[in-house]
Amino acid sequence: MDDLDRFITGIPKAELHLHIEGSLEPELMFELARRNKVAIPFASVEDVRAAYQFSNLQDFLDIYYAGAQVLQTKQDFHDLAAAYFARARADGVRHAEIFFDPQTHTDRGIPFDVVIEGLLSGMAAVEGVSSKLILSFLRHLNEEAAFATWRQAEKWLDRIAGVGLDSSELGHPPSKFARVFAAAGEAGLKRVAHAGEEGPPAYVHEALDILHIDRIDHGNRALEDPALVERLAQSGMTLTVCPLSNLKLCVVGDLADHPIDRMLDLGLNATVNSDDPAYFGGYVAENYRAVAHARNLGKAQIVQLARNSFTGSFLSEAEIATHLATIEEFARQN
Ligand SMILES: Nc1ncnc2[nH]cnc12
Ligand SMILES: [Zn+2]
Question: Which domain holds residue 118?
Fold first, then answer.
């Protein structure tokens, strides 16, 4: 590890864009398949990894939803979350706001309560990393299905920080979910949405104007619209950018062309995150490292990205100030 790599791993950081189902490593997938007697279409862990070649978001989603089938019991969700938090802690993550996709599980008969109870217990099992949960609606399903999920979530709202919107973006604009996002806003939850990953800048406008989001997930294609960039910069909107995901899903052709430093130069509150690390080849520190090497980032930019990860979080002002102070101290000593 060179000096910058050590700096990247050590700097205190938050992860704001992580699908817990996307942290299911092939080894755990096999263990759960065996434990639950679920058939999976792979002969070995190597076979699974070899299948992770995607040419777009849908390619990936098909395999991601198939992998999630092995998750059945509260213990499975506990193990999944505990494994992620242990791995994140080793990457210098001090706080993580993680997505879960309840519909991926309830649609195959796993009760909502089993999912959330298992995740909450796994999140609590690892010391040294605080966490929040974001319930993400699947946008390829309809509004009625999102409302059914919302009703199942209502008794858990004190344990859910926000709602999100993920899955197949093209053809499923944010406006499709205006009413369920309004209900979440009325209940006092934060709102985030994947927008501008594959979808056009118009979807980012809709997420802002119709869903009233507090944070934007990805947002890459906002760069095509200078007025939108200006608006995002002026309003201090945080973008949860995922470099290795962007590479694996062909949002960028090469990491050397990744726009992370352009985003910072444009005054955007960009952050670096792992999205679905088991599928895209790296946890959060690897995302920082890969894009830092590809774009020649220096320590000042790494510090800026780490600061943005806390200022863009849903922690309190006091908690954010404490984390920023630890970053300053780390930067002074390193
Ligand atoms: N990168 C991504 N975009 C949309 N939906 C997702 N679900 C898991 N990862 C996703
Ligand atoms: Zn995502």
Answer: 3-333
Under 8 Å CB-to-CB from 146, ≥6 apart: which residues?
A: 137, 138, 177, 180
CATH assignment of the domain containing 230: 3.20.20.140
Q: Is 253 exposed, middle or buried (0-12, 13-18, 19+ CB in 10 A)?
A: exposed
CA angle 165, 171, 175 (to 5 degrees): 55
Q: Which mutation among 23, 60, 203 tests ligand 1's pocket best, with the greatest number of atoms within 8 A of CB? A: 60
- Does the CB atom of residue 19 touch ligand 1 within 6 A? yes
Question: What radius of gyration do the chain's Cα atoms show?
Answer: 19
Q: List per-residue pLDDT tens for the chain, 334 residues long.
A: 799 999 999 999 999 999 999 999 999 999 999 999 999 989 999 999 999 999 999 999 999 999 999 999 999 999 999 999 999 999 999 999 999 999 999 999 999 999 999 999 999 999 999 999 999 999 999 999 999 999 999 999 999 999 999 999 999 999 999 999 999 999 999 999 999 999 999 999 999 999 999 999 999 999 999 999 999 999 999 999 999 999 999 999 999 999 999 999 999 999 999 999 999 999 999 999 999 999 999 999 999 999 999 999 999 999 999 999 999 999 999 9
Query: Of ligand 1's atoms, which has the minimum distance to the CA of residue 136?
Result: 7
- Number of compact structural domains in the chain: 1
State the Cα–Cα distance between residues 174 and 139, nearest whole angstrom.
Answer: 8
pTM over 0.95: yes
End-to-end Cα separation, the chain, in angstroms? 15
3-state SS, residue 39: coil
Q: What ipTM was predicted for this assembly?
A: 0.98
**Residue 166: CB within 6 Å of ligand 1?**
yes
Nearest ligand to the C-alpha atom of residue 60: 1
Q: Is 276 annotated as a binding residue?
A: yes
Distance 16 CA to ligand 2 centre (A): 10
Q: How many residues does the chain have?
A: 334
